[in-house]
Every structure is written in structure tokens, then in C-alpha cells.
Specification:
The chain is of the alpha+beta class. About 30% of the residues lie in helices and about 30% in strands. It has a seven-stranded mixed sheet, sandwiched between helices. It has a three-stranded antiparallel sheet with strand order 8-7-9.
């Protein structure tokens, strides 16, 4: 089957969360404040569409991230937070899927830059991003991840005290619960894609000037 037989749709968050939590290596969407969501569909039983992939875009979780990768217009920077396809798909499915989401973002938003991080802690080096013409920007510093009851949880969950889960997590951590602890992680690979060629030229020029000064 060719990837061109697949369709990509902009869908509500609730339509893909169960799929992401089942198939993505994190099995988690907590803390992902996504604003654009996409489903990849193939032909299922009785000729009905079947979700075979999902993608979630959000504003970068850290304000400095947006300023770093789009210093001219930080509010027009997105982070690809979740990307997953089922295993039984053609080899270039993920790169096709990303490309179609980029086409939608270019046509329907004024976003300019997309950044994504390949997590080597989970064995990812960014092969898919290279195939989709992202630019490689090196590595982040090593980090750490919160382990809760044997499962990896994003560190921000500990501070989300406005949510019941966050409050309970915070309470247990402060009480010295031995089932909540920190674990060191490997650096992540940084990839950047420019949705707008004009902003790419401006950012490259600004970067050149900053390096010369």
C-alpha cells in the first residue's frame, strides 16, 4: 500500500488521546497542552477509515525554547510533542504524515517554526526528522525524569498543583514516598523546521549578526 492512499485530518484532541496513550512510547499525554491535533487514517474494516497515526503540536513548554528557535516571533513557534504511527505501515509513513501536517499548518495558521526533540533515552535519534528536512541543531543538556510507581512521568506533573493528579503527586513527593524519585536521562537531539522561508532567512541573518558581534 502507498502512503498516498492515507488521509490526514485535523481533529479534536479527545479523538486521538486514547490512540496516543496506547501506541506512543510514553503512553502518556499528561502535561501536553496541545493546540493542533492530526489523525492519519487508512482503510479499516468494511472500508471505514481507521486511525493509524497521530500527531500533537503545542506551544513549547518552556518560554525560552520559543525565543531561541524563533527569536523574531516567539509566539509563532510550535513544538511537535507527540508523533506515533502503528507498526504495520509503509516505511515512509511518518515522514509523509509530518509533511501533510506541515502543509495544513502553512495553509491554516500563521505559525513559522516547528521544533522537535528526539529522545535518545528512548532510542530515538531523529531519523524521521532528517527525512522530513528538519535542520539538526545539536543536543540539549542531559536531563532527568520523574519516576512514579515505576512509570516515567514528566517533571512538570509535580508542579501542576491545580490538577488533582498533580496535587496528589506533590503531596506524596513531599512526604518522602520512595516510589517517586528522579532518574538521569541522556541529552535529546534538537530538530527545527521552518514553515516560512522568509522567517528562515531573517532568523539565519539575525543568528549570523549575533555570532559576529
Amino acid at each position: 500500500m502507498s502512503v498516498t492512499n492515507f488521509t490526514v485530518e485535523s481533529i479534536p484532541r479527545k479523538s486521538l488521546v486514547p490512540f496516543v496513550e496506547k501506541h506512543h512510547y510514553s503512553h502518556n499525554t499528561n502535561g501536553v497542552q496541545s493546540i493542533y491535533h492530526f489523525g492519519l487514517y487508512g482503510e479499516g474494516n468494511f472500508g471505514l477509515p481507521k486511525m493509524i497515526g497521530a500527531a500533537m503540536y503545542a506551544y513549547p513548554s518552556m518560554p525560552d525554547t520559543a525565543k531561541k528557535y524563533n527569536p523574531i516571533n516567539p509566539t509563532k513557534c510550535l513544538e511537535l510533542r507527540r508523533l506515533v504511527c502503528i507498526d504495520d505501515t509503509p516505511k515512509n509513513t511518518e515522514s509523509y504524515f509530518i509533511g501533510q501536517t506541515f502543509k495544513w499548518l502553512k495553509q491554516n495558521t500563521d505559525m513559522e517554526v516547528v521544533v522537535s526533540f528526539a529522545d535518545e533515552h528512548h532510542g530515538h535519534t531523529g531519523v524521521i526528522y532528517k527525512a522530513t528536512n528538519f535542520e539538526y541543531w545539536g543536543e540539549t543538556a542531559g536531563g532527568r525524569i520523574l519516576i512514579v510507581d515505576g512509570k516515567e512521568t514528566h517533571s512538570r506533573s509535580l508542579n501542576q498543583i491545580k490538577r488533582p493528579y498533580g496535587r496528589e503527586l506533590n503531596r506524596r513527593y513531599k512526604a518522602g514516598d520512595e516510589n517517586i524519585f528522579w532518574k538521569k536521562t541522556k541529552p535529546k537531539h534538537i530538530y527545527v523546521y521552518y514553515l516560512n522561508k522568509r522567517i528562515k532567512r531573517k532568523i539565519k541573518k539575525l543568528d549570523f549578526i549575533n555570532k559576529k558581534s
